[in-house]
Amino acid sequence: MAFPLGRVTAAAVIAVLTVAGCSRDPGEAPAEPGTLRATAAIDFDLPDAQRYHRTATYPVHLNKPAADPVDAETVAEISTVTPDGNTVIYTDAAGKRVGFLDLRDPADPVGLGTLSLSELGHADDQPTSVATVGEYVMVVVDTTGGNFATPSGRVDVVRVADRTRVHSIDLGGQPDSIAVAPDGSFAAIAIENQRDEEFTPPGGDEGDLPQPPSGFVQLLDLTGAPQTWTPRRVDFDVDAARAAGLDTPDDLEPEYVSVNARGQVAVTLQENNGIAIIDGRSGDVQKIFSAGTKSVTGIDTAEDGRIDQTGSITDIPREPDAIGWIDDTHVASANEGDWKGGTRGWSVFDTGTGEVVWDAGNSIEQLAVRTGLHNESRSEAKGPEPEGLAITEIGGRPVALVASERSNFVAVYDVNDPAAPQFRQILPTTPGPEGILPIPARGLVVVSSETDDAESGVRAAVNVYGFGDRYAGSSVFPSLVSGDVDGTPIGWGALGALAADPADENRLYTATDVAYGPARILGIDLTQTPALIDTEVPVTDDGRPVALDVEGVAARPGGGFVLAVEGEDGPGNELVFVNTDGAVERRVSLPPDVASGLGGQGLEGVAVDGDAVWVALQREVKTDPAGVARLGRYNPAADTWEWFGYPLESTGVDGDWIGLSEIQVHDGALLVLERDKLNGPDARVKAIYRVAMPDRAAETGTLPVLPKTLARNLLPDLQTGRGYTQEKVEGFAVAGNGRLYVVTDNDGLDDANGETVFLDLGPAADALQGA
Known about the structure:
Elements: E1 52-59, E2 79-81, E3 87-92, E4 97-102, E5 110-116, E6 126-133, E7 136-142, E8 153-159, E9 164-170, E10 175-180, E11 186-191, E12 216-221, E13 230-234, H1 238-243, E14 254-259, E15 264-269, E16 274-279, E17 285-290, E18 293-299, E19 311-317, E20 323-327, E21 330-334, E22 346-350, E23 356-359, H2 363-370, E24 386-394, E25 397-404, E26 409-414, E27 422-428, E28 433-439, E29 444-449, E30 461-467, E31 480-482, E32 484-485, E33 488-489, E34 499-500, E35 507-511, E36 520-525, E37 531-538, E38 540-541, E39 544-545, E40 550-555, E41 561-565, E42 574-578, E43 584-589, H3 592-595, E44 603-609, E45 612-617, E46 628-635, E47 640-647, E48 658-666, E49 669-676, E50 686-692, E51 709-713, H4 715-718, E52 729-734, E53 739-744, E54 758-763, H5 764-767
Parallel strand pairs: 31-37
Antiparallel strand pairs: 1-30, 2-3, 3-4, 4-5, 6-7, 7-8, 8-9, 10-11, 11-12, 12-13, 14-15, 15-16, 16-17, 18-19, 20-21, 21-22, 22-23, 24-25, 25-26, 26-27, 28-29, 29-30, 32-33, 34-35, 35-36, 36-37, 38-39, 40-41, 41-42, 42-43, 44-45, 45-46, 46-47, 48-49, 49-50, 50-51, 52-53, 53-54
């Protein structure tokens, strides 16, 4: 039976369906066509002079000792900088060392090697924090070695110039963070004496408090030579903590410290859900108060594969982690949570009254969704989990930097009015950003990340950003965002395809793959900056949303779409024809002899050429020659297939492979996207190749292999953002406006940093060689 490819119009897909992105139940029937398109809720388009620019991303495994295996875990958690602003020093708890990084050129950090703590103490010693004072770096070391009942720690004072320890100071407990007073007169160190999460106290559950001994704060006077520096212990009054409403006041756990110009120390008591203010000069505890609870609506609280922002949390303790002084009477806290709480945001407190003057509510999570950084695997836990926080200045105005540990970004806010912070910008990071180090004298911010996954090639790194025109030059993030419907952003991520709209020259289509279900076709408005996802059409079968691993999408000129769906095995691969409302009209499986020769990597691209449909298979069919993938031409009217071979590039890297990720028809030829499985500094093959359009396949059983020519090397394009080079460049299209666009698949943040790169490479006639 003939199956016409039809014609699609822009008006037909204005149906903004809210299956996964908005407030209604994901299982409801689709909305009626004609709903208004989503609109941009945040202006991300800042001038270069008013924004941070990423200048470099330095993977810290490059700074490990040469004798260490390349895949050995190494991280960067907390960092500090020498007084001249040129040498960054970071903690590497996994490697039990501290690292040194030359930052004289922010665009080209240079590793200066590491200092192993085993050389200064025991092999089990772990650094928890670092801070510089004059020519020295104070390395805070946890020497507990897993013996939670008898916690211990020290501060090693190391001369930076020759990395010689000149003094060591016993802390009397297990330390966490350190902060130096702005005038350099003293340092405050949080002695957490952290709980054992596998221990069950009498009458409690596993990991509960109390687990003595209680924590405290050490104040370290820094006058004179290091050998004369003396600690002063500050204990908290249990009755005062109880009166303030803190949880388990007889076992307080200080987490993070910050010192203001008055010499006041703000301390978070995370598991106890409290904040304390100490006079750093006298050692008096001036105030202790509860961080309170928060109810948050419009968030995703179910780990079900859907971006479903209809969940809520009620009366949850904030349990703040990092803290910073905005001014002398206001502090900001990142409410990560550790024991019973975590409210997915950050707050501002009046330190005089202990009252909350502002709270982020669901805005951090909405920011993650809006920029494609939603981490579905954390939905039932603490969502984006803000952990790190620092305060700096831009043009004399205080600015808060808030790090999302699970969604891999830093949000930037103007906090000149502490009661009304204003969002400015989002900075993408490598996974697990924790330490935020402003270097205001140079207009820099350094973010260290603590997640290292050598197996997937996503390594911990030091991320560097510079403010203003002098640091401009990298591509801007975000380059793609979603609009809001009824105050809720359209959920998106894991984009494995791009397609032009036949009727609107400034419009593209893309689709979410299996990382976020159910399958949806998203419309992109190219006239907006950044480009705006403003429509979503759920794919439905018999009226119900359906989960599909969509790896290719093509708009049919006569109406509707063709989807390339990758199966878990060969027979699961199919072409799915849907109408303009996303309803499945026809499914077409691959021929049995082809499907049986595929593993878990099959259909990866689809394109429409007149009455024909072209597809790309990512990897070789088992019966075909090694290094040859397949391109297929399907005739919907006759229900027939023709197959052609495509010669893949080669790789000699262990664990790597080369495959296809997209196919398009342009100027009478086939354009094919080919990539390797590598990312970061290891990435080598990310390119578009041109293949002459074949007339017909050979009638014999021999697979004709088509010659290819390079049309564009995409690797330099992917590196313009100066971030961690993405592995999965999986979609490209030439829009009706004649420009070439490329998108990466962020894998839903699974074994990836989550950053989506959406590139406008200019007119295809200029961007493609031989065009």
